[in-house]
Design goal:
Layout: E1 2-6, H1 11-22, E2 26-31, E3 46-49, H2 52-60, E4 66-69, H3 76-81, H4 83-104, E5 108-114, H5 137-156, E6 159-165, E7 167-169, H6 185-193, E8 200-203, E9 215-216, E10 218-220, H7 221-234, E11 240-245, E12 251-252, H8 253-264, E13 270-273, E14 282-283, H9 288-294, H10 303-319
Parallel strand pairs: 1-2, 1-4, 2-3, 4-5, 5-6, 6-11, 7-10, 8-13, 9-14
Antiparallel strand pairs: 9-12
Helix pairs in contact: 1-7, 2-4, 4-5, 6-8, 6-10, 8-10
The structure holds uridine-5'-diphosphate-4-deoxy-4-fluoro-alpha-D-galactose.
Length: about 325
């Protein structure tokens, strides 16, 4: 297929673009490089360095079989202090994309949604039928886009799949997590191990969990990317399907730090800090629907293995 990957110079987008190319697809990346990196675009892939608002019509006019839409603003904290950046940057931009796809007859869409659409869960593991009550603006914008996709699919025959990511981690070859502002646990802990940060703060040790720290579902970015390939194959005209992507396994903040100590051999000093606003105690996915309907199964579920891949990437960046 000929596929457009928006945000293909970012972390998840670049890994997906690489896996798509390896599977024989023709890929074009559209990225304004506001947070992505030109050197993260896989070899053999054309980069159109522009924003969706400016370029989407011209690009889709070339004719594509589908779009994988990763480009987004994705910092939860920032979304609370600068909501306009998220409503415009995520929702308005995605509407432009949907309109351009309709105008140019692009038949398929795979969209990066998020566990943040659910908010604080009533029960875990979280299924796709769980209530959607986002607790932050980031999650609210992704949910709004999901709703728009549902109506465009029903009215205009779009074949659409939204994938709701839990905590994406790990790396693939030269493609990994490189954020200007890092807020995610594993890269922060690895910054300590690589000497770029002194200590890690544990946001609360009085949560109602076994060791008192928050529990999350860490999914390897390669397993996540492979779900996108399956989603493309299973997308059906006029339908919008939604799937959670996680391992179904929860690891606490303390367990993550311990795994990082084991993999890196660094003591990684950690301090307990106050709870971070908006953090739910436990977020673990039920990915049964993706397993059953997409035939997808996460293969890289071992936490130490996920951390090892992220650590190899961190060290390759230091050598770069
Ligand atoms: N944490 C720390 N110290 C840190 C950073 C994080 O203790 O320095 C804790 C957090 O409090 C949380 C856990 O580590 O309990 C994981 O935090 P991340 O920031 O890595 O990830 P989140 O679970 O907050 O967020 C992820 C995605 C979001 C998405 C959300 C869905 O990164 O994009 O899941 O709920 F919205």
């Amino acid at each position: 297929m000929k596929l457009l990957v928006t945000g293909g110079a970012g972390y998840v987008g670049s890994v997906c673009a690489a896996r798509l190319v390896e599977s024989g697809h023709e890929v074009v990346v559209l990225d304004d490089l506001s947070t992505g990196h030109a050197d993260a675009v896989p070899d053999g892939v054309r980069l159109v360095e522009a924003g969706i608002d400016d370029a989407i019509g011209d690009v889709l006019a070339e004719g594509f079989d589908g779009v994988l839409h990763f480009a987004a603003k994705s910092l939860v904290g920032e979304s609370m202090v600068d909501p306009a950046k998220y409503w415009h940057g995520n929702v308005v931009t995605s509407l432009r994309l949907l309109d351009a796809m309709r105008e140019h007859g692009t038949p398929r869409l795979v969209f990066s949604s998020t566990a943040a659409t659910y908010g604080e869960p009533d029960q875990v593991p979280i299924a796709e039928t769980a209530p959607t009550r986002p607790t932050n603006t980031y999650g609210a914008t992704k949910l709004a886009i999901d709703h728009a996709i549902t109506s465009y699919a029903a009215a205009h025959g779009l074949a659409a799949v939204s994938l709701r990511y839990f905590n994406v981690a790990g790396a693939y070859r030269r493609f990994g997590e490189r954020h200007g502002v890092e807020t995610h646990l594993i890269p922060i802990v690895l910054q300590v191990a690589s000497g770029r940060r002194e200590r890690v703060q544990v946001y609360g040790d009085d949560w109602p969990t076994e060791d008192g720290t928050c529990v999350r579902d860490y999914i390897h970015v390669v397993d996540l990317a492979d779900a996108h390939l399956r989603a493309l194959e299973h997308a059906a005209a006029g339908e919008h399907r939604i799937y959670n992507l996680g391992n179904g396994l929860g690891f606490s903040v303390k367990q993550v730090i311990d795994a990082c100590r084991e993999v890196t051999g660094h003591p990684i000093p950690a301090d307990v800090a106050p709870r971070r606003a908006g953090d739910p105690a436990v977020l673990v996915a039920s990915s049964e629907k993706a397993r059953t309907e997409l035939g997808w199964k996460p293969e890289r579920v071992d936490l130490a293995g996920i951390v090892r891949d992220a650590w190899d990437f961190t060290r390759s960046q230091q050598g770069a």
